[in-house]
Write a structure and sequence with these properties.
The protein has about 325 residues and is an alpha/beta fold. About 25% of the residues lie in helices and about 25% in strands. Strand 9 (about 180-185), helix 4 and strand 10 (about 200-205) form a beta-alpha-beta unit.
Length: about 325
């Protein structure tokens, strides 16, 4: 079969395209899916580079997010048949690890998946839309809705708003009735974020978001006339030097929602803001199956529209990796084998 796979850990040169990669055969309790769509996440770049403490059997085909139809059913599988349209739940882990990391993932024509990871895909949800949902959108929904409980009327600042998680955070905040301030690295991305619902945008390469938020909503203070100034929520999955800045724009009792640290997991901290302004830090670790099912329902109801930046063939998957790595993506990139 055709596949785009990791030969060894390293940069872009560590990956290769093959038209004769061995076809998967289903073990007991598994099915083989004809992959119709897979999406890339920054996790796939980390997997290629090599993550400390995680042993990856090489070669391995990346791609956590997979949608397609069943073409072969292994022994003992019940309730599934050839031709069923399915979405894979990658966080419902395989034995010993994660699909697209320790077992072959979606950047191939076919993919073997244990039946416990299968989610039935309605006919009115496309394969491309479905493949966008699990890792990025699932993480966003758990952070914004399940754990973060963003409410109508709140002011929500989203950092890194143009990526896969970020665009969904913007959309979910708007669905909740919040006022959304989206941060992006270019005016072009800012315009696209306004098109999907952002009320205000900040180009963080040209302006300091702390200064801009203070100008929009006032500088928070613990007492006096400035009580209530600032924003209610900051969505920060970048970390690094944005962390303390996030604390500086929150009103008294405000909260930071965090699900990652793409710019650094060990930032300088300033605990004074946390206790003085009685701030709340709420973490979200991935998503659960119920989060994916909720997203499928939102797409079915046309209440949520997935944002796809560009589609690539398997042979051109290297270009998709480059767009992810260079932060050139607005939303998600899709691979169609």
């Amino acid at each position: 079969m055709r596949a785009y796979y990791i030969q060894q850990h390293g940069g872009p040169e560590a990956m290769a395209y093959s038209e004769s990669f061995p076809d998967p055969t289903p073990k007991a309790g598994e099915v083989v899916i004809r992959v119709r769509a897979s999406t890339l996440n920054y996790h796939d770049v980390f997997t290629r580079n090599g993550m400390p403490g995680i042993k990856i059997p090489l070669p391995v085909i990346p791609g956590l997010d997979v949608a397609g139809e069943i073409v072969e059913v292994g022994a003992g599988v019940e309730g599934w048949k050839r031709g069923d349209r399915v979405l894979v739940d990658p966080m419902n882990r395989v034995a010993g690890g994660l699909i697209g990391e320790t077992t072959h993932g979606g950047l191939a024509e076919f993919c073997a998946v244990p039946e416990h990871q299968l989610i039935a895909l309605p006919d009115d949800v496309s394969f491309d839309a479905a493949a966008v949902l699990p890792t990025a959108y699932g993480t966003a929904l758990r952070m914004m809705v399940t754990n973060g409980r963003v409410e109508s009327g709140e002011k929500v600042l989203v950092l890194g708003a143009s990526g896969g998680v970020g665009v969904c955070c913007v959309q979910l905040a708007k669905l909740a009735g919040a006022e959304v301030i989206a941060c992006a690295g270019s005016d072009e991305k800012a315009a696209k974020l306004q098109a999907i619902g952002a009320d205000r945008t900040i180009n963080y390469n040209e302006k300091d978001f702390v200064t801009e938020v203070h100008a929009m909503y006032g500088k928070p203070n613990r007492r006096g006339a400035n009580i209530g100034k600032g924003v209610d929520v900051v969505v920060n999955f970048t970390g690094g030097d944005t962390w303390v800045k996030s604390l500086k724009v929150l009103r008294v009792g405000g909260r930071v929602l965090v699900c990652g640290a793409t710019a650094g997991f060990a930032p300088v901290e300033d605990l004074r803001y946390i206790w003085a302004f009685e701030l709340n830090i709420k973490g979200s670790n991935g998503y659960r199956r119920e989060d994916i099912l909720a997203l499928v329902g939102l797409v079915q109801q046309r209440r949520l529209e997935v944002v796809i930046d560009e589609r690539f063939s398997l042979k051109d998957a290297g270009q998709a990796f480059a767009r992810i790595e260079n932060r050139q993506v607005m939303g998600k990139v899709v691979i169609n084998p």
